[in-house]
Amino acid sequence: MIKCVILDDELLAISYLKLLCEQIEDVEVVKAFNDPKIFLNEIHSLDCNLCILDIEMPGMTGLQVAELISGSHKIIFTTAYKEYAAEAFDLNVVDYVRKPIKKERLIQAFEKAKEQINTIQKKTFIEWNTNIGKTVILTEQIAYIKTSEIDSRDKDIILNDGTPIVLKNLNFKNLLEMLPSKDFAQVNKKEIIALSSIKVLGTNEIITTIPTEDEHFLKLQIGDAYKNSLIELFTK
């Protein structure tokens, strides 16, 4: 879901842009501003992941605003002037959309934003309801995941330091979409392993770096349906 905030000094431009956004799937306009200073005062308290900034505004340009927020939010610029393009892309923004804005062109910009936002999320963390409430878990801290023996809808996570966490009501398909594919692999129908936790990859078995109560290391059986994909991960 794209949760965006709009900044444009022209109220008609804001209304038109909000109308376009409402016609695009998986896009929500959280709030709109026509004053850069008010925008900057509120932006970090809003639940959003994308800012649509007009460039030409009195008092403070969209370029100046972008310099202050680019580290925390993805940005799409809108403008009627093409001469700002080079400067805009120097700020590593998602896209630069010329006015008058067309719906098809805005959809393209949102697709680029989704790709970048998803990449960031997959590289850094997952957020889900757990046995200790809604929790943010850094993916680099995850060692091993298995289907819960108490409730198959839940997934048990073991972190690198041995801490257990239970993800509530989450299937493997959706879980794997949240995880960086280069760092995790499904081993069988009930288990996922972080590649960094693999000590030995055998034909039918994985020996992990995860200690067990009998002072050995956790071993996982490789399901026939998962052998080829595991091998591919180690031969890329």
TrEMBL record:
UniProt cross-references to InterPro entries, sorted A to Z: CheY-like_superfamily, LytTR_DNA-bd_dom, Sig_transdc_resp-reg_receiver, WalR-like
Residue ranges of the Response regulatory domain? 3-114
- Pfam families the record matches: Response_reg
GO CC entries:
cytosol; protein-DNA complex
Molecular function terms, GO-annotated: phosphorelay response regulator activity; transcription cis-regulatory region binding
Record key words, sorted: DNA-binding, Phosphoprotein, Transcription, Transcription regulation, Two-component regulatory system
Where are residues bearing 4-aspartylphosphate located in the sequence?
D54
* SMART domains tied to this protein: LytTR, REC
GO biological process terms, alphabetically, are: regulation of DNA-templated transcription
Q: What is this protein called?
A: DNA-binding response regulator, LytR/AlgR family
Species of origin: Chryseobacterium ureilyticum
